Amino acid sequence: MIVQLVIVAVIVAVTIGVAIASRRVGGDAAPTPSGFTVPGRVARNDFEHPERPWLVAVFTSETCDSCAGVVERAAPLDSPEVAVAAVPVQDQAETHAKYRIDGVPTTIIADAHGTVVDSFLGPVQTIQLWDAVAAARAAIEGPEG
């Protein structure tokens, strides 16, 4: 009887040891993707001012707490060179569906051809947004563009 108890105790101890070791080995697993998508291209005619060389589109929802702040931070970029568009899902559900926008706020920066050159999922700070637009413009237009 004592021999059987010792065998059971050894088996339990080995099982616990293997479980602990496997947790340590698998602890640095790759991050799980968010599942949110960002389009690679957009049709500039789907947004106001398609004639402007740059587009900053902020996909939003009226139920999103941080969306208004992102739109507010993007608005000063609106100029003869940059079209800024707020795209609320309540008013433009077809645009959200077309570009498979499944999380808000989603902000994209697109060039004159509709190629998305940068994007942000979630809230974005003013400096990040402005730097991204400046970097995109400099990459295509040159440093004096």
From TrEMBL:
SUPFAM superfamilies listed in its UniProt record: Thioredoxin-like
Name under which the protein is recorded: Thioredoxin domain-containing protein
Lineage of source species: Bacteria, Bacillati, Actinomycetota, Acidimicrobiia, Acidimicrobiales
